[in-house]
Amino acid sequence: xxxxxxxxxxxxxxxxxxxxxxxxxxxxxxxxxxxxxxxxxxxxxxxxxxxxxxxxxxxxxxxxxxxxxxxxxxxxxxxxxxxxxxxxxxxxxxxxxxxxxxxxxxxxxxxxxxxxxxxxxxxxxxxxxxxxxxxxxxxxxxxxxxxxxxxxxxxxxxxxxxxxxxxxxxxxxxxxxxxxxxxxxxxxxxxxxxxxxxxxxxxxxxxxxxxxxxxxxxxxxxxxxxxxxxxxxxxxxxxxxxxxxxxxxxxxxxxxxxxxxxxxxxxxxxxxxxxxxxxxxxxxxxxxxxxxxxxxxxxxxxxxxxxxxxx
Amino acid sequence: xxxxxxxxxxxxxxxxxxxxxxxxxxxxxxxxxxxxxxxxxxxxxxxxxxxxxxxxxxxxxxxxxxxxxxxxxxxxxxxxxxxxxxxxxxxxxxxxxxxxxxxxxxxxxxxxxxxxxxxxxxxxxxxxxxxxxxxxxxxxxxxxxxxxxxxxxxxxxxxxxxxxxxxxxxxxxxxx
Lengths: 311, 176
Description:
Low-confidence stretches of chain B: 15-20
Oligomer: heterodimer
Number of domains of chain A: 1
CATH architecture of chain A: 3-Layer(aba) Sandwich
Distance between the termini of chain A: 76 Å
Mean pLDDT of chain A: 90
Number of strands of chain B: 9
Structural class of chain A: alpha/beta
CATH superfamily of chain A: LarA, N-terminal domain
Helix content of chain A: 25-40%
Strand content of chain B: 25-35%
CATH topology of chain B: Protein Transport Mog1p, Chain A
Structural class of chain B: alpha+beta
Number of helices of chain A: 11
């Protein structure tokens, strides 16, 4: 090898390394986008903020809870696309508390529009079908239409994109594309009892964002699936409806209900779920998927480490 | 001759066993309408075993534990946005059928209002109201049907549910 060959090979190797490095970074960037959503992390050294609005009408409570977090403009920028995922799984009227209160969702849509959102999409993969009928009976269609939102049923597999989860049980999952592509993703569950997981709160509500729910039910651990998914597709904001909660007979009901008249909001989904266990006389440790999520570092389940602000 | 008699006896026994079995679920909700309510297009669901998640999602294990082996569901459209939902459950044993029915009755007695036993249900069904909806339950041989009215501008009257239970009573064989 002469000096010229050495230089040529050296340059080629350098170029390969440089390109390889770039390609690696591109791949990593691609992998991040395939990995779902990152949410809004709590700043290092700070406790997550949890807003609790109580006593009032669902719409007013929703506003108070968001205002306590700093206002909707802290989250929504002009021209953005916002996606809201309530629980509209069941063909049930709102008073049965099996679905998110439509006033909570409508208020959020209105607030996002007021903050300049270009589009506010409300999306659900309902269990009961046909979805349009489910949305009507749950009172959601009328509520969302009235405030300029778009209510979309995710019942076509083409509406989903595969996302890398990289968990122990979940390697990948097909997730509603609208959620992945949104500038802001808000999870808006209702608090209720659940036969399989004791409670369904915010993390469990994300099951309505995937195509194949049955895969989780037949897996080794439904709770682990819930936690792993919640870590990979994180909402930017959680607004939990606890105006009326289903304390028995969930998830579908009908069953016994109670009226705490509360809306709880935070960017930390684990903190929301941990707090809401108290509505049912439970502790965070009673719910397996909360414990797993906390152990995976997805959020804060220790309420002593959460800054709770009563609005 | 004795062989023929034995064969005929066995055939009769088999026939009577088949005749006493619960009807195939798909036949119970067959037809374009129920008590004058037309079917909602694409709303039919049938599921068995773990596939009951299709109807009950995470709550399906309650039904499995209660002895439900399969279920079918059909929606019907009524006036002014009202919807009638009928779910027919197939149960593993007569005891499971009885227990399931009693559980529904206990729930109606504890939480419901206006509990009634319409004559059209032939002594094996009841209706009640709960949280803005009207429900009806009917017991058949190896089956329990649960009907409910949702939506619409007003709660559907109990008389309407009695009519639905009457039609279902004609389709689900009497348990005894």
